[in-house]
Every structure is written in structure tokens, then in C-alpha cells.
Amino acid sequence: MLLKDKTAIIYGAGGAVGGAVARAFAREGAQVFLAGRTTEPLQIVAREIAAQGGKADIVPLDATVRDEIDRHIADIVGKSGRLDISFNAIALGETQGAPLIETKEETVLLPIDTAVKSHFLTAVAAARQMAKQRSGVILAITAQAARKPYRDVGGFGIAGSSIESLCRQLAVELGPQGIRVVCISSAGSPDTPGLKETWRKHAQNAGIDPDAFEQRIVDKTMLKRLPLLAEIGNVAAMMASDLASPITGAIINATCGEIAD
Questions:
Q1: By the 8 A CB rule, do 260 and 231 touch?
Q2: Second label for 20, Cα 20 to 30 Å away, from 14, 29, 134, 193?
């Protein structure tokens, strides 16, 4: 198992991506701590992990509040003795479907502020513990819109670019302490609940039906498909593992080839 005896925290673990990553980590032997604002989705993921023989604890918390983050990490270390992996997949609260000139300032700034604040607070809190161990992996996830501009995505792409820049800055500062920082870039998983509604808005703006809009995205990829949630979980598990030990400061391209590095 890739993550045997590792301890991992997943912020936003009740969401589609966070849940997929949590299940992958647990499958690979990690003890996972599931964090999120709402208890019920965390309980669902925890039960799924337990049914497969994994270990999962849940903690309701707000990943934009420093005191809650710090207390949780202290609790994890108290139980497990260490923290090996931190993965942030919280929802950013973005609104898509309109051009910037028709969007309110607060609507554009919300996902940017949420992204920078949460990723900074969770990463720095994890790094303080990982520095004591001289090891650890901090992971984030963005989308292709962070590197390739798309119409009508509001603050979403800007927020993603901010996360990627923060990861690079953290990587150069934390590397000497044995801490790796990696960001995964996805093209959007078609099996994500709610994604179809976002695509529907974009399709309406483009004057085509939602299936045709999705096909446009697929056609842009080299593999002629989009990454499934389980695949993103697999990539995260690989990046968190010792098999990826020389990788840091990188944006891992999991877009099925929509972007070429």
C-alpha cells in the first residue's frame, strides 16, 4: 500500500473531490481525518471507508478559521503522533455563467479570498508540525481554468491561479525542511454532482445544448475524455506517497491532455 501507516487530513472531505481523495488515501493504508463544515457528508464518506476496512475520523470545522485548524491538527498529532499529508479540496463558493463586467465585485472576490485564506492557513498549520518531523506532503487541487482562460468563470480561474502560486511559494520555503508541496490540476470530473449545472449555464451562454458543451471540452483533450473522480484520487495518493519523493513545487497535469506542459 502506498500510504501505509501515514496520517492524512482532508479538508472538504465531504465534497466530491475530497471524498474521492479520502477514499483513495484510506485504500492505500492511511489513517484519514475528514474535515468539513457539515457533518452528514463526512459521515457518509467515513462509513464508506470503514466498510472497506479503512480508518477514518470526522471533525466538523471551518477551514478558513485558524483556531479551528490549529486545534484539529493538535488533536490529530495527539492521537497519531504525527501528520504526514494535508490535502485541501474545500469548495470556493464561486459563481459562474456571466462575464466579469456584469458580475458584482464581492461575487468575483469571494472564491479568491476563500482560496488564498484557506490554503494558506491549512498549509502553514500543517507545515509547522511537518517541520518538526522533517517530512510531510501538502497537496491542493485546481482546474485547467487556473492556467487557461475561459469565458464567464468569474473568480474561479483567478482563485486557482492564486492556489498554484501559493503552492510554489510554499514549496521553495518548506523544501529544506523535508516538506513537499504539490498541486493537482483537473479538467473537471463529469461524475461530480453539480458540475452539469455549471456546464448548463455555459452551454446556454454559448447557444448550444449541455451535452454539446461537454463534448466540446472532451474534444479539446488528447485522451478524448475527462478525468473521473476516482482517477483524481489515485493521482493524489501517488503524489502523497514516497514514490513521488522528488516532486515538489509542481502542478500535476491530470486534465487528460486538455493542457500540454
A1: no
A2: 134
Contact status, residue 56 vs residue 50, Cβ threshold 8 Å: yes
pLDDT at site 30: 97
Q: What is the CA radius of gyration of the chain?
A: 18
SS (H, E, C) 166-209: HHHHHHHHHHHHCEEEEEEEECCCCCCCCHHHHHHHHHHHHCCC
Is the C-alpha dihedral spanning 215, 219, 221, 222 positive or negative? positive
Query: What is the structure's pLDDT at 197?
Result: 80
Q: Compute the distance between CA of residue 135 and CA of residue 49 in angstroms, rounded to an integer.
A: 26
Contact 110, 33 (CB under 8 A): no
Low-confidence stretches of the chain (pLDDT beneath 50):
none
- Residue whose cell numbers read 496520517: 7
Can you give the pTM of this predicted structure? 0.94
Q: In the chain, what is the straight-line distance between the N-terminal and C-terminal CA atoms, in Å?
A: 29
Q: CA-CA distance, 131 to 34, in Å (whole number)?
A: 22
| CA 151 – CA 89 distance, rounded (Å) | 23
Q: What angle do CA 17, 108, 197 make, to 5 degrees?
A: 45
- Residue at grid coordinates 479551528: 68
* 3-class state of residue 216 by DSSP: helix
C-alpha 133/C-alpha 115 separation (Å) is 27
Domains of the chain: 7-189+228-254 (3.40.50.720), 190-226 (no CATH)
Quick one: pLDDT at residue 254?
97
